[in-house]
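Database export, one record per block. Field names are fixed; values are copied verbatim from the stored entry.
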Amino acid sequence: MPNVLDSRWTALGVLSATGLMTILDGSIVTVAMPAIQHDLGFSPAGLSWMVNAYLIPFGGLLLLAGRLGDLIGRRAMFLAGNAIFTAASLLAGLATGPGVLIAARFLQGVGSALASAVVLGILVTLFSGPAERGKAIAIFSFTGAAGASIGQVLGGVLTDGLSWPWIFLVNVPIGVVTMALALRALPADRGAGLRAGADVLGAVLVTSGLMLGIYAVVKVEEHGWLSAHTLGLGALSLALLGAFVARQATARTPLMPLRILRSRNVVGANLAQMLALSGMFAFQVLVALYMQRVLGYGALETGLAMLPAALGIGSISLFASARLAARFGARAVLVTGLAMLVAAMTLLSRVPADATYAVHLLPPMLLISGGGLVLPALATLGMSGARESDAGLASGLFNTTQQVGMAIGVAVLSTMAAGRTGELLAAGTSQAAALTGGYRLAFGVAAGLLVTALAVAVTVLRRPAPTETAEQGAPGGQPAASAAAK
């Protein structure tokens, strides 16, 4: 059996590398934006599309891609997504103007969605034992938990040490190697066939609804929450998603069988994740902006200043989360991690304009390590209760709420910070103090979002009963996709 085991752990390495690339690519551009704007002549409004052009297709296609992975094969979907992402990264690195770079970012989002949507579905079918699955999810979650922080560190190093195109070109050799290993290590699967869920109308409704919703959210800072643009697109998005749910309840071959929403843990974990990641955006982006715009840090300094958080998240998710979940249960681990994040955001909500790193920033950097407990526990709970035949769908749903949470965090916290800064400037406050006041408000709201996620974890999530596995198993007596999730 050693070769089988080697193949499975090699497959996990492939899945983790892809997860790292896709998560990292969402944050690596943050510290490189000033250099990109200078070299390619981006307008301030156009620069926001460096992030938006990636987030909209990524978040909008995840649910569809996850279900298609169940139908046509998760391995094929994973390889297609990697190929698109790698080609788009090369195009982005060679871009000579804003239009080409934005188009490349859009294609990167498409490729990321196709590959990421099926990753957890492949993982939970490869590792069926509770101990092995816990370890595998911890290793995979390490890449997601640390990816955002690593992205900011790597973005600063590459931008200052080489040039901004390398934040994209670095993906090309990684993508090529990943695809070569995936062809050998990932198990071939044929899927259930399109006839088992070829709901074209449902696919159009959910994809257009999610893309419109994410677009409306990411443009809030420009148009405002109560503008006709935001309210109109938001209402249309909700109508499309509502029509999708109604369609799934009546379709002969639904794209998303509604049985997946009967699991209390699946619904609760996805809701908690959306809230938690909305709050964690304040750390991933706003802390970097605070250090650069208020404290005067450069790109490399910012990346290195955030290194303790990246190391803490990575170490805890990789070495401690699986053992703690096995002993105390994923729910207890999640609650502990969320409490640490609440403490971190509470401290950040009190930072002064003349902060010193050791006193005001290092303590929350260390507390952010709680993210290394939160993300593996959420992944375990988010995949619990799903049938093996629905693993790709559950994976796509989990990743969708992740991206929606990040988009909401971008819109809500950035808008609040900018609004508060404007009020303070109008009142005659200095630039540094006004910016600090805006960021402090955003950190405080982030703490509130994390408290709400904590409340969901305490009141909604529960330890699956032993009988739940059999009841939620796939037809023919197959075990549930996450049979023994704690």
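Remark 1: The longest helix spans residues 391-426.
Remark 2: The two ends are 27 Å apart (CA to CA).
End of record.
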